[in-house]
UniProtKB/TrEMBL annotation:
GO terms for biological process: glutamate biosynthetic process. Gene3D superfamilies: Alpha-helical ferredoxin, FAD/NAD(P)-binding domain. Transmembrane segments: none annotated. Residues 36-69 form the 4Fe-4S ferredoxin-type domain. One of its GO terms (molecular function) is oxidoreductase activity, acting on the CH-NH2 group of donors, NAD or NADP as acceptor. Keywords: Amino-acid biosynthesis, Glutamate biosynthesis, Iron, Iron-sulfur, Metal-binding, Oxidoreductase. Pathway: Amino-acid biosynthesis. PROSITE patterns: 4FE4S_FER_2. PANTHER family: GLUTAMATE SYNTHASE [NADPH] SMALL CHAIN. This is Glutamate synthase (NADH) small subunit. InterPro entries: 4Fe4S_Fe-S-bd, DPD_II, FAD/NAD-bd_sf, FAD/NAD-binding_dom, Glut_synth_ssu1, Glutamate_Synthase, Helical_ferredxn.
Length: 500
């Protein structure tokens, strides 16, 4: 490490975000442009170069964090980029979207604020692109074998890039009209501008990966026929079967799943709509769900000009510090403010408005609606009734509370892959007890030559786990096709995040 006392002399410092009143008027990323570079060398210098770097364990990719921290502190951006890309295909994605379990596992975090690993990562990635360090890496020779990847989210893209670089001819099939999966249509532009995705896809195309968008395998194309055309198949369709809220009034118009709402906002940015078919403009909005998807909805609703917005979380408000049952180096459930929550609080009329904008320990009892008409045969939602929830999620003894609601967004998480797709039946695949596609220790399903990577086999998880799974599944496919592999396999199908 460049400065052995850096963690003692330099406090943790985060780059400033753009002012709230400015950023809610556009869809650009919330971080102030260029804000990282003046501070990032000193922040990287805080890395202790621990004897046992637990940040490696916190990151399923096994990122070489102390190494590239040291290189950044010395201004050696080229070598830092090489070390970062040695374990991570898409650091510009994880540096923006990952919740950074590596920081929770940082040894410094035992009794001090952790190293800003995530910010160092994204600074390296952005500097690498700006300096021309990121170039296509096509294979020296082709293997003569072919692989189809179904799904173009982070797991599918990682698997495709690894297999292409190993010399196989790879085609990625995506049911949406554009490549990227939820990176394209699920993640709002203010969290990651789509130019980040497009330039990485350009690199992959230059390396030889083929993309087939607008093809729904299982519907437009028989999956068994596709398997017969390729030497191997990788299923990376994610876990997009959303959870429902079966309460009275659910049938009312104006109640939508988050993944019905968010893609339309992203399609406006792509130029498909002048105005989204589902918009929060001028409406009283209630978001049900306190996770990242709910926060994505919150930031989008604010930018569309909602009259009011309330986010409901069934769980109690977490504490500000680690609980005794969540010791270092596990990823703790603590109270966190995303950029969207920060925006909601600042735009609110009073300091107490966070209680109204974000309500914890709340469970929805029923929806109330307007009378049916020709446009809305079941009527439209006009209010939501909620009651306090106990720690187990069951309704508590409190009196009911009524919230006005012209638009309700359900962000309740996902149950697994969408089983109504013909994909699984056509290949004869089975599901495990968690609702994910069943697979063995080598990511292989019961169908010969068919592998599963990412949330489709793991269940709803983080982007960093999806990329790690894509890399590991690629190694398994390469071994299946060639008899051996030199591709890295950072995780196994049964690996899970650290827990107490």
């Amino acid at each position: 490490m460049a400065d052995p006392k850096g963690f003692l002399t330099t406090p943790r410092r985060l780059p400033p975000r753009r002012p709230v009143d400015e950023r809610v008027r556009d869809w650009n990323e919330v971080q102030a442009p260029g804000a990282l570079l003046p501070i990032i060398n000193a922040q990287a210098d805080r890395c202790m170069d621990c004897g046992i770097p637990f940040c490696h364990e916190g990151c399923p990719l096994g990122n070489l964090i102390p190494e590239w921290n040291d290189l950044v502190s010395r201004d050696d951006w080229l070598r830092a980029s090489e070390r970062l890309h040695a374990t991570n295909n898409f650091p510009e994605f994880t540096g923006r979207l990952c919740p950074a379990p590596c920081e929770s596992a940082c040894v410094l975090a035992i009794n001090q604020p952790a190293v800003t690993i995530k910010n160092v990562e994204v600074a390296i990635a952005d500097r690498a692109w700006e300096s021309g360090y990121v170039t296509p890496k096509p294979p020296e020779r082709l293997s003569g074998r072919t692989v189809a990847v179904i799904g173009s989210g982070p797991a599918g893209l990682a698997a495709a890039q690894q297999l292409t670089r190993a010399g196989h001819t790879v085609a990625v099939y995506e049911r949406d009209d554009r490549v990227g999966g939820l990176l394209r249509y699920g993640i709002p532009e203010f969290k990651m501008e789509k130019r980040q995705l497009d330039r990485r896809l350009g690199q992959m195309r230059a390396e030889g990966t083929k993309f087939r968008s607008g093809v729904d395998v299982g519907t437009d194309l028989d999956a068994a026929e596709l398997r017969a055309r390729y030497d191997a198949l990788v299923i990376a369709v994610g876990a997009r079967a959303w959870r429902e809220l079966p309460v009275p009034g659910r049938e009312l118009a104006g109640i939508h799943q988050a993944m019905e709402y968010l893609p339309m906002a992203n399609r406006v940015r792509e130029g498909d709509y002048a105005r989204p078919p589902i918009t929060a403009e001028g409406k009283h909005v209630v978001i049900i769900g306190g996770g990242d998807t709910g926060a994505d909805c919150l930031g989008t609703v604010l930018r569309q000009g909602a009259a009011s917005v309330t986010q409901l979380d069934i769980h109690p408000r977490p504490g500000d510090e680690r609980a005794d049952g969540e010791p270092w180096p596990t990823y703790p459930k603590i109270y966190r403010l995303s950029a969207a929550h920060e925006e909601a609080m600042e735009l609110a009329a009073s300091p107490e408005a966070d209680v109204d904008a974000r309500v914890f320990s709340a469970t929805t009892v029923r929806f109330e609606g307007t009378a049916p008409d020709a446009q809305r045969p079941h009527g439209g939602v006009r209010a939501l009734r909620l009651i306090g929830a106990r720690a187990d999620g069951q309704p508590g003894p409190d009196a009911e509370r009524v919230l006005p609601a012209d638009l309700v967004l359900l962000a309740l998480g996902f149950r697994g892959p969408e089983r109504d797709s013909g994909l699984f039946g056509q290949l004869g695949l089975e599901f495990d007890e968690r609702g994910a596609v069943a697979r063995d220790a080598s990511f292989a399903t019961g169908a010969d030559g068919v592998f599963v990577a990412g949330d489709a086999g793991r269940g709803q998880s983080l982007i960093v786990w999806a990329i790690a799974e894509g890399r590991s599944a690629a190694a398994a496919v390469d071994r299946y096709l060639a008899g051996s592999t030199t591709l890295p396999a950072p995780v196994g199908p049964a690996d899970r995040p650290m827990t107490a």
